[in-house]
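Thanks for the sequence, V.! I ran Blue-light-activated histidine kinase right away. Repeating your input here for the record:
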Amino acid sequence: MAELIRTFDWSRTPLGPIESWMERCRNITDMVLASGFPTIVLVGRDLIQIYNDGFRELMGNKHPAGLGQATKECWPEVWHLNAPIYQRVFAGETVTLEDASRPVNRDGATKDAWFTLSYSPVRGGDGTVADILVTVIETTDRVRAQNALRDSEERFRAFVTASSDAVYRMSPDWTEMRQLDGQGFLMDTTEPSRAWMDRYIHPDDRPVVQDAIARAVRGKTMFELKHQVRQADGSLGWTLSRAVPILDEAGEIAEWLGAAKDVTEAKQADDLLHESEERFRSFAENSADTLWIFDADRRALEYVSPAFTEIYGEAPDRIMADLSHFVELVHPDDRDEVAGAMPQLLSGDAHQVEYRIVRPSDGAVRWIQDTGFPIRDASGRIARAGGIAQDVTERREAEDTLRVSEAQLQVMVAELHHRTRNLIGVVGTLMRQIIASSSSLADFRDRFTERLEALSRVQSLLAQYGNEKANIGDVVRMELDAFGADLDSERVRIEGEAVPLRKSTVQTLALAIHELATNARKYGALQADDGWLVVRWEAYVAEPGRRRLRLDWTESGIDPAVEETEGPLHKGGYGRKLIEEALP
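Predicted structure:
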């Protein structure tokens, strides 16, 4: 600036050529140039500017035109502020201003700037104030920083007041925590700390936190992360931490303002829910039954367990993609009932339905028992329906078999009742007839016992056949075998086709054959060593629609002179009456 001042054409200014300057003006100019601070001297009442190199830096694009120019012309934007000060200084007062705000235009635009200024009077030879010496230190950066800090603190205080979360301020690179109000959740940090990571963050989570910080700083974007944190009581908790960058005028990060929400209970609830879901999934995936969940809003299945494939013969993904495929699996006769179940569930009523499916994998018809129930959300609204579908085919078949068995049992009980009643009647008749023809109690006992045994044999035979009809050949062989006849010898011949008998006739016929066999054993072919017995029968049609049975009992090789006087077939005996009167 010294060279510029020396070569400047001062003749164009009220000061005149530099060679004609008064000693006072030369001395004050030398003092300004020698000052280590930005300094300007305003010469005379016209306040002509002479300044040093330090002040030139403050001039901006007002230099070099500002040299030798009246200060009012150079700084019109602040004249209204400075003119009163100049008046005070010309009156002999030294005026000092600290961090004074001035709207200055140094680069084509008027901007607020801050300065610490000292206005000192310079007296002439007559003792009056002739010039004004101004020492200037620009404090714009410091004031703006202080203002930003004050604004940040005010924002922080407002944030703390308005938030129930822990709030914090961080340095631009997060190396320093400037302040943290823990709100009882975290320990407070009232002084800047570089050890905040060790104090608050669990070692396992530090790499994740550092990575998230690096991404946010790099992109000047919001920091957001859920991580473990050491709580005010020393225990570990969980926080959802969010911080936004506060940018300066240059667009660089000045600091970060953040909030840490206590989500410990929510995280624990999430963990419990996750464990519950895992238990459910493990149960569902290993269950032999199909578990399903239906979304009421989407009107679609949102989950079907793997057992669906085994039971229904179809992949779960297919019916989850299109519910109509499920309807196609249901037996046509059962579709209406199945379709009516879901509206009932979504109205709030649990429901159980049994229906048939036609399994596409093998064409098998299976019975399904489907138990459904509504699932409500936190507000009580039915958001879903769930259910368990079981293959109950074997149970249904067992029930059908049981019903048939019960019906058969009822028939059998009725039959047994009928047979018992008839048997008692027969036994009663036998007893009365045998008493009438017995010669003694011992004779009655023997004869009655034989006939009871015959009845017992025929009841066993009927039980053996069950619902089927007994064959006449079996009745004949049964009785002859009971009397010790050698059925394999040529002396006993049994001939005839298989003729089934009505149950009502088996008992009477068996007693009749018993009487014939008794007579043969006592007096006839089965008693004689040379006796022969031929039993022959045939079925024939006696008249249209009526079948008859003819049975021939022929004994030979016996003494024809033998005449029965006491046996079952003597005239008037029970056996004879049975054969002649009871057989149809």
